Each structure stands twice: as C-alpha cells, then as structure tokens.
Amino acid sequence: MVELVGAAPENVVATITPQHVIISTSDVLDASGCIVFPHNYCKPIAKSREDVEAVIQAMISGSPKFFLGTDSAPHSPETKCYRGENGEIPPNAGIFNEIVALPLYLSVFERWIGLENGLHQFEAFCSLNGPKFHSLKPSEETITLVREPWMVPEKIKGVVPFIAENVMNWKIVK
C-alpha cells in the first residue's frame, strides 16, 4: 500500500496508526495463524517486519501523502478475547492507542532519523499534512512532549492500552 499511495495522484493519501510502525504479525498471531495476542489485534492486521519498515519509511519521509491516524479503539477485555465455548467468536479488532500514540510516533522518528532532523517531519506528520489534505487550518493548540520515562498502565478504566506495562521515553505534558 505504501508503494501504491506513493505513486498515486495527490488526492490519494494514507493515515498511519502507531501500532503499524511497532508490531508485526508475530505480535498478534502464532505460527498456525491463531490470534494469541488479542490486544494487538486490529484490521488491517499487522504485517511482516519488512512491511513495518516500509510504513516507517513512508511516515518519516516528509511526504504530505502520509499522516497521523490513530484509529484508537478501546474495547473491554471480555470483547478482546475469544468468546464462546469453543472460541468461535474472534476478538474485536482494534487497539486502544490514544495515550501512547504521540510518544510512540516521536520515538520512531527519533530512532530512525534522529530527534534534531525528525522534529520538523514529526510535526508535519502529526499536525500539518492531514489538515492540509482536507483543506483545513491546522489547530493553534499545542501539545508538549518531554523526555521522561513513564510506565504505560496495565489498564485504563478497565481497558488494556496498547503496549500496556511498557516504559515509554516520551511523555505528554500540558
């Protein structure tokens, strides 16, 4: 899809979710194709490591054709696990990434192109490319991220967030 969007006319763009620059198929499925990590299950399903790297390259490219799209989907724990006597009802697709999205995106920019070089592209990816494509004025509100380790909680109001119980190096402060 990265190649398709990149080669398409200007009116074809793509949003990139934080999970699609972090996880691959093995973070969702076992070798037989069964969902074993339901809190990482989303649609489209995570792809190979090579596909993840292609999405990262698109994200950090500075191209206005790619921009933030969290698609955050909080589901209760009981709907994120197989239901039914024989597990016949699959978990709901969707990842609750709202609280980690910006810190994750910034971490990827920092890792792949360096913080100094990546800040301009990070701002464009998160705040400018989407509004420009939709002929909207960017918001004048700001969000501040600081380099400060914090632990992603195990649950937020009963919902398991993306990368729960992992340490993030960037934190949103107001």
UniProtKB/TrEMBL annotation:
- One cellular-component annotation, GO: cytoplasm
Keywords, A to Z? Hydrolase, Metal-binding, Pyrimidine biosynthesis, Zinc
PROSITE patterns associated with the record: DIHYDROOROTASE_2 (PS00483)
What name does UniProt use for this protein?
Uncharacterized protein
For biological process, the GO terms are: 'de novo' pyrimidine nucleobase biosynthetic process; 'de novo' UMP biosynthetic process
Q: What exactly does this protein do? A: Catalyzes the reversible cyclization of carbamoyl aspartate to dihydroorotate.
GO MF annotations, alphabetized? dihydroorotase activity; metal ion binding
Entry annotated with the keyword Metal-binding: yes
Note whether Hydrolase occurs among the keywords.
Answer: yes
Species: Candidatus Falkowbacteria bacterium CG10_big_fil_rev_8_21_14_0_10_43_10
Q: Which InterPro entries match?
A: DHOdimr, Dihydroorotase_CS, Metal_Hydrolase
